[in-house]
Amino acid sequence: IDGTELKAGIIAEIGSSEGVITPLEEKVFIAAARAHIETGRPISTHTSFSTMGVEQLVLLQAHGVDLSRVTVGHCDLKDNLDNILRMIELGAYVQFDTIGKNNYYPDEKRIAMLHAIRDRGLLSHVMLSMDITRRSHLKANGGNGYDYLLTTFIPQLRQSGFSQADVDTMLR
């Protein structure tokens, strides 16, 4: 950061629209790729409703990005296991980061997708977190709150057959 000794830790959050990467978004992705190449910093992307993750990675890769340094956000909002597996195959990490947003996609289906990923030996490419973006998501306002992942979702994973080592892998 100019004028300081501070350096960015991550290039984030660059995103695309639902079902399309607009020309302006493409420019942002290219700029992020250039920043990544210059700094070596990882990139975190945003998908809209779990769309365009593969396309984001193809674009970044075409501009020289090391995809093992990229994590794709919001991959858990629909049945898209094939796309998730393709993103992992390309070398990226996928974020299951809308856990608890059952009005978009039920946690039970997230768990089923995680089982399919685990059965292929790919859990090391999954990151679990929660996307708390509104006041209504806070417990005080009737939402799941910040602890839902640890107090509700992780016990559901364990009950469904995930080991503590599996969970730790996804939370690291």
Q: Please state the second-level CATH architecture.
A: Alpha-Beta Barrel
Main sheet overview: 5 strands, parallel
Net shape: globular
Distance from first to last alpha carbon:
27 Å
Helical fraction = 40-55%
- Written as H for each helix and E for each strand, in order along the chain, the element string is EHEHEHEHEHH
**CATH topology assignment:** TIM Barrel
**Quaternary structure of the protein:** single chain
What is the class in the CATH system?
Answer: Alpha Beta
Strand tally is 5
Mean pLDDT: 96
Q: How do the strands of the widest beta sheet line up side by side?
A: 1-2-3-4-5
Radius of gyration over C-alpha positions, nearest whole angstrom? 17 Å
Please state the structural category.
alpha/beta
Q: CATH superfamily membership, which one?
A: Metal-dependent hydrolases
Q: What low-confidence regions span 5 or more consecutive residues with pLDDT below 50?
A: none
How many structural domains are formed by the residues?
Answer: 1
- Percent strand equals 5-15%
The DSSP helix count reads: 6
GO molecular function: hydrolase activity; zinc ion binding
Organism: Citrobacter freundii
Protein name: Hydrolase
Keywords: Hydrolase, Metal-binding
